[in-house]
Amino acid sequence: MNLVELAKQTRAIILDILERSAIRPGQIFVLGLSSSEVAGGVIGKNSSAEIGEVIVKSILDELNQRGIHLAVQGCEHLNRALAVERQVAEDKDLEIVNVLPSLHAGGSGQVAAFKLMKDPVEVEEILAHAGLDIGDTSIGMHIKRVQVPLVPIQRELGGAHVTALASRPKLIGGARANYGQDEIRKN
């Protein structure tokens, strides 16, 4: 796999989703990643630390420039806990759990997050404003309601299916209610 091309494609996808998701500085973005799927394999069967690091670094670089926080979802062996910066966990009053990710328990994305973040910790759950799912890892449990699906400009990264979610405030009221502009769909 060409890692330079992988980084380039990852940047294109994340820039597209950031623009269309209406996520703002200080908010949280979730990444679900199966490097096995990116490499053309089956989820959880062929994890690649190199692929994980290229993807997480590409995404972190773009998020950090915008003041958006990254949360990297782990696999089911860690109950889909998330790697975040300790300061984010403390500022947002997230419960820190005691576990260290490995390639086959947490996955390549979490291993990369622990390598690339300043002071990473694991938290059990989060409510993020948007997210990117590379390899059908099911990030929906960590995205705020109401979730809005976004179709990325590129639907595959390597061999992995790519989807994304944004969130918007709930519409409440009834026939007499008025609503502000939908920042995601612009209508």
From TrEMBL:
It holds the Pfam family DUF436. Gene3D superfamilies: Hypothetical protein TT1679. SUPFAM superfamilies: TTHA0583/YokD-like (SSF110710). It comes from the Bacteria. Belongs to the UPF0340 family. This is UPF0340 protein EII38_06425. The lineage of its organism: Bacteria, Bacillati, Bacillota, Bacilli, Lactobacillales.
